[in-house]
Amino acid sequence: MQRSRAKYFERQGKHYLLVELNEQPNLDHAETVSGSRDLFYVDGEIADTRKARPQQRRLFFALLSDIYTWSGMPTDFLKNLFYLQYESYTFGKQISLSDTTESSVSDANQLLDLVIEFMFEWHVPFKEGYKLLPREQEYYLFQCCRHRVCMICGNRADIHHVDVIGAGLNRTHVDHTKRHVMALCRVHHSEIEQIGSVAFSAKYHVPVEGIKLDKETLKRIGLKGKYSSD
After folding, report:
1. Partners of 7 in the beta sheet?
2. Contact yes or no for 94/82 (Cβ under 8 A)
3. pLDDT tens digit string along 63-76?
4. Contact between 183 and 155 (Cβ < 8 Å)
5. pTM above threshold 0.90
6. DSSP one-letter string for 18-74
7. Report for 80-84, 106-110, 138-142, 152-156: range of highest mean pLDDT
8. Which pairs count as long-range contacts for 83-92, CB under 8 Å and 24+ apart, including other chains?
9. Helix (H) or strand (E) holding 182
10. Which positions ≥6 away from 8 have C-beta within 8 Å?
């Protein structure tokens, strides 16, 4: 994982982000991946350097409580397990969520992502943790779709289209990247169609606007379509 400094500026109406790398990039790898040593795309996240928030600590331990309920593994053991996983993922960087922590909001978000990813991979039911999800709400909905897990009960899910596809229209001829979707099991899929999205949202206290997925994710979960970028 490469950590770098960046400077934002505007010039002639265009926006630029100048990145100062702390080590030389592997241009051979960049050429292999993108086909060019001069122009390639990178993923990045602007670091939030504020001190980790109490809300993040509460969410972390709520998620650990959900894992404990599912597995019986003690909370202290789980805490140390994910702290070690974070240290491994960040090549030796340590983290703390104590009141005197020096860890940042971005550090804590990375730790939370590792816990949430674990819960989806092992189908751990979200209970207390879901009530506290902050910015991770959209991330949670994305992971539900990605793993085909019902956002209400955690059972195996279908992909429910918020933007209704008309009767008789072949779904394999639809560009699903342009439509909002949700992951719902057969029971909750039928229920939202019966009572409507407003009543469904009020009953389960969940957002029902859905999210849009990229082409790669849609293909990964087996949602065939005719994508404009193909």
Report:
1. 18
2. no
3. 999 999 999 999 99
4. no
5. no
6. EEE-SS---HHHHHHHHS-SS-----------SBPPHHHHHHHHHHHHHHHHHH---
7. 80-84
8. 83/111, 85/114, 86/110, 86/111, 86/114, 89/1, 89/114, 90/1, 91/1
9. strand 181-184
10. 15, 16, 17, 18
